[in-house]
Hints:
3-stranded parallel beta sheet
Amino acid sequence: MQCLASAASKGQQIALVCEPTLEGVLAATGLGYLAHVQEGQIRLVSSACPQLRLGESDIRLAASDAAAILAQRVWSGFAGRQGPGKTMAWRIVLACASDDPHMPEIVHRYVRLGFSAGQRLKDMIADPNVSALNNLARFVCNECEHTRQFVRFSHMSDGSWWALFRPKADTIPLTCQYFATRMGSERFCLVDPGHLCAALYDGERSSSCAVVRLDQRTAEGLATREDYADDERQMQAMWQRYYASMQLPGRDKTHRGYDLRAHWMPKRFWAELPELSLKP
Length: 280
């Protein structure tokens, strides 16, 4: 913080590099407040793609227990300023799951506006800072719905269930509890190799779904599992045949409704859908 305060006192433009996560962004925002940095002097930059502007000095915020505590303080303060309900705070959670490289700065501006505007924030839908964050939150919300719709679990040789999914946002932590409720007492592993994330559930209803961050090698190993149960490939083939039998024969691009499947089931998910792409 001393380094940040010193740079601010000299009138320097600061690029505060932080992890593109909820904790990382909120901790960086809180650090700016504690160092008394003026809003126009500081810009949050994702450590995943730290692109600096001319004349900016970069300062990096490392993940630590102190940063996590500071993030919690910022979260509690923001939620308290918004009054009853957590709608505005929940939008921050959604936005922080976005892959947009500008996400840290968009959330930073939104949080600062929320502290100054208080409960008026919910009515400021035309404000550029609010609009930008709402766009991120809306996209992530849609990706969460895609996750709930298009994850397909396969039965593995050890009796557990396994699924691979590649969303365009970090949606597994936001949706894994839905699958824990849906799967009941079944053990499962849901892997997102793009975001190096996995959700693990041990089948105990009294426990919550655990979310773990993976290294690249582990993620690639989990993404290429082939130890299916004996009946899994047969079940996938039966499901694909049933799905194919529901199609209308002879329909091509000149007929109405031809592209509805591509519209409602985006093609980027087809590789993991057994009804559309049978695993070899």
